[in-house]
């Protein structure tokens, strides 16, 4: 009869130590699973991996699109498939993180470090990509909106951030991105230019640390459309476009 209370005490001790272990685990989980957000832009609330879907996947895809497989179309669709796994793995590898293709606390921490409060990547600003003729955000051509233009430009800036890092963190200069209707009329631009929709960005070296061809080569992993030296009228800038078919042409470079 005396064994029951002894058993009870032993169980109590075991349960007590389990609770201590559990409490310690919870502290550990809390401190690693939900990294503090670094700014006013966006905070991920869960680890993401292949099979996940949702707006948080979309936010991740916008930021890793520049690390996709060269010559493929990377879809920003909120669905974490094999292409997203590859892009995350390439991103992790490029920034010295464990490259497992799973977006967890370390990956998110790096992304927080790379973005400003307004969600643009740290080395590019809205002021560099706004209307190339007049500055600011004059109305786009019909069929699109400033909000859509800015969403596209956000994607372009993150892809450019990847190019910049791939080249060894060298400065790059944007010479043209958004072109409003008034701007396009003024310069006599093509009626279907990606620049009208914020889907294109022209880059040149920002210092002697990079070359036109260096940028062109480094861009192939980040943009479906890459036009550079050797393509007509593209000897003095690299045109980068987000579009639904792959076209890379810079015969003097590759
Ligand atoms: Zn262009």
UniProtKB/TrEMBL annotation:
- From the Swiss-Prot or TrEMBL record, what is one GO molecular function term? zinc D-Ala-D-Ala carboxypeptidase activity
Look up the signal peptide feature and give its range: 1-33
Q: Pfam family example for this protein?
A: Peptidase_M15_3
Q: Where is the Peptidoglycan binding-like domain?
A: 53-111
Which residues are in the Peptidase M15A C-terminal domain?
A: 150-240
| Alphabetic keyword roster | Carboxypeptidase, Hydrolase, Protease, Signal
> Which InterPro entries does this UniProt record tie to the protein?
Peptidase_M15A_C, Peptidoglycan-bd-like, PGBD-like_sf, PGBDSf, Zn_M74/Hedgehog-like
Q: What is this protein called?
A: Zinc D-Ala-D-Ala carboxypeptidase
């Amino acid at each position: 009869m005396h064994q029951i209370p002894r058993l009870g005490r032993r169980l109590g001790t075991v349960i007590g130590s389990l609770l201590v272990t559990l409490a310690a685990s919870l502290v550990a989980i809390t401190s690693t699973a939900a990294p503090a957000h670094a700014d006013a832009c966006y905070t991920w609330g869960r680890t993401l991996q292949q099979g996940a879907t949702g707006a948080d996947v979309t936010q991740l895809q916008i930021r890793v699109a520049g690390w996709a497989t060269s010559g493929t179309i990377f879809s920003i669709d909120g669905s974490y498939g094999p292409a997203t796994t590859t892009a995350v793995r390439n991103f992790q590898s490029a920034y010295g993180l464990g490259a497992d293709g799973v977006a967890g606390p370390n990956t998110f921490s790096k992304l927080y470090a790379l973005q400003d409060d307004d969600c643009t990547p740290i080395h590019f600003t809205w002021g560099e990509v706004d209307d190339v003729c007049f500055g600011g955000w004059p109305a786009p051509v019909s069929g699109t909106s400033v909000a859509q233009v800015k969403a596209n430009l956000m994607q372009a800036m993150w892809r450019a951030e990847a190019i910049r890092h791939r080249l060894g963190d060298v400065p790059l200069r944007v010479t043209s991105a958004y072109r409003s209707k008034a701007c396009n009329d003024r310069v006599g631009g093509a009626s279907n230019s990606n620049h009208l929709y914020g889907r294109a960005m022209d880059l040149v070296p920002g210092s002697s640390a990079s070359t036109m061809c260096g940028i062109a080569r480094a861009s192939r992993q980040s943009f479906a459309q890459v036009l550079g030296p050797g393509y007509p009228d593209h000897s003095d800038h690299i045109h980068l476009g987000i579009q639904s078919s792959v076209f890379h042409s810079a015969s003097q470079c590759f």
